[in-house]
Specification:
Layout lengths: L1 H13 L4 H23 L18 H34 L2 H15 L7 H34 L7 H33 L3 H28 L2 E3 L5 H13 L3 E7 L10 E6 L2 E7 H6 L2 H16 L2 H19 L1 H4 L4 H4 L17 H11 L1 H28 L4 H15 L8 H7 L5 H20 L1
Parallel strand pairs: 2-4
Antiparallel strand pairs: 1-2, 3-4
The structure holds zinc ion.
């Protein structure tokens, strides 16, 4: 399968195109596309009244807050996007990748390491790029938490947490990223043309290791998980729900999400035979026990219908296509030199590949249009999953429809979520259907369900 689409790609990769101009053009076009989608959404923040279905839950004052929060976030995204395209453009124009690659080699040579040390050089190269992007993102992240979220009453983070989070993220990224990158490159170097399947096997195993290690090692660095109070009505309720659905519940935690933000959530994770449910303290504070249970019924609907596994499979196909389409660029004589990397001497055999990591990163710039299409497709999939999970919760009978509807509406109000969404904006940015869409679908399911019962 790999070979069949690599042949035309090899021809393309060897062509004397101005790859840098193509990458610049695609980056600009991609940013323009996202900007236009956002601009099309902007007038929605000036609509004078909420949708009729949510008029009661959104009294004028709350509605005004939600509109102003939505507008502030949209303008922030617009400004950040504009800066993003300038940064990406400058990075390409001034050959920053080639510079970082050379700087990594220089650093190695300074410490007395010479010769071909591609893996070590790649790790330093990745480190330099990560440092640059962290530093340039810093003012934006700071503004988002301490100005924007703060102004709308959501930020709970202290400046100390902000700084320690940043340092911890960098260390965790290095602790896991360095061995991952080393293995990633070693596999490609070792297996040559047939690396794709080995690499995918390795990446899958790595993900499984992360699933196990994340709650043990990474999460405790950032958050505190406390087992839900023994014998509390909420715990009993959720345990009864898990038993009813045969969900292999091992632990039930409350997480201190309120340390950083007032936004609320709940999720589950773990291996197939041992699952953990985590509920944000903010969700517990904002909702009744019955509502939290309904939210979890929705979450367990995702589990019951194997949505995480399905997403994993879709991602594997995506990764497969990505990994098997870039090797032709490794033997291209025009690709990397176009971005300021040294031209290969005329007598180098064509089989001697160019540096893997820079090729892989720059190659991905060419895929931007495909990634946009993918985003529409992925959102369509996750929305279908959301409707299915809602239907699952409603299908549990009793007053689940009412409770889930109430819970979602309450979360919407508390999170000041946007109420009017342009269809294109929604299709591109929303992994969930909008609240009116969900409520309407749930009503239809409930009607079908009670209709069936009467028959
Ligand atoms: Zn969901």
């Amino acid at each position: 399968m790999q070979g069949s689409f690599q042949l035309p790609l090899t021809r393309i990769a060897q062509s004397p195109y101005n790859w840098k101009a193509i990458a610049l053009g695609l980056t600009a076009a991609s940013s323009l596309f996202e900007t236009l989608i956002l601009i099309k959404q902007l007038p929605n923040y000036s609509k004078p009244a909420p949708p009729p279905a949510l008029k009661e839950q959104f009294p004028p004052e709350t509605y005004a807050k939600s509109q102003s929060y939505g507008r502030a976030k949209a303008l922030f995204t617009l400004a950040k996007g504009a800066w993003g395209v300038v940064e990406a453009g400058l990075t390409l124009y001034f050959d920053v990748y080639a510079w970082a690659w050379g700087a990594a080699a220089g650093t190695l040579a300074y410490f007395g390491y010479s010769g071909d040390r591609e893996i070590a050089q790649s790790i330093l190269f990745a480190g330099i790029l990560a440092l640059i992007s962290t530093v340039t993102a810093l003012p934006w992240d700071y503004y988002y938490s301490f100005v924007l979220e703060e102004a709308h009453g959501f930020n709970k983070m202290t400046r100390l947490t902000f700084v320690t989070d940043l340092l911890k993220s960098f260390l965790v990224g290095a602790a896991f990223g360095v061995p991952f990158l080393a293995a990633f490159l070693a596999i490609i170097k070792h297996f040559g043309q047939s690396f794709v399947y080995y690499l995918m096997g390795f990446m899958l195993a790595f993900q499984l290791v992360l699933v196990v290690l994340y709650p043990l090692v990474i999460q405790p660095l950032f958050n505190k998980l406390t087992p839900l109070e023994e014998g509390s009505t909420l715990k009993l309720r959720i345990e009864a729900l898990a038993t009813r659905l045969k969900f292999p519940l091992k632990h039930l935690y409350q997480i201190d999400g309120s340390k950083r933000s007032n936004h609320s959530n709940a999720y589950f994770y773990g291996l197939p035979w041992s699952k953990h449910i985590v509920i944000f303290d903010t969700l517990i504070d904002q909702s009744s026990d019955e509502e939290v249970e309904a939210v979890l019924a929705h979450e367990l609907g995702h589990w019951s219908m194997s949505h995480p596994t399905k997403m994993l499979l879709i991602n594997q196909v995506h990764i497969f296509l990505l990994l098997s389409s870039f090797p032709p660029f490794l033997t291209s004589r025009t690709f990397l030199p176009s971005f300021g990397f040294p031209t290969l001497p005329a007598d180098t055999p064509l089989t001697r590949p160019a540096p893997i990591l820079p090729t892989f990163l720059l190659f991905q710039l060419l895929l931007q249009p495909i990634e946009h299409v993918m985003q529409f497709a992925m959102n369509a999939v996750t929305r279908a999953f959301e409707y299915q999970a809602d239907a699952f919760a409603v299908g549990l009978g009793g007053d689940f429809r009412q409770r889930l509807g109430d819970a979602l509406t309450k979360l919407h109000v508390k999170n000041l979520s946007t109420l009017h969404v342009d269809w294109l904006y929604s299709a591109y940015h929303y992994s969930h259907p909008t609240l009116p869409e969900r409520l309407k679908a749930m009503d239809q399911m409930e009607m079908k369900r009670s209709g069936k019962k009467e028959l």
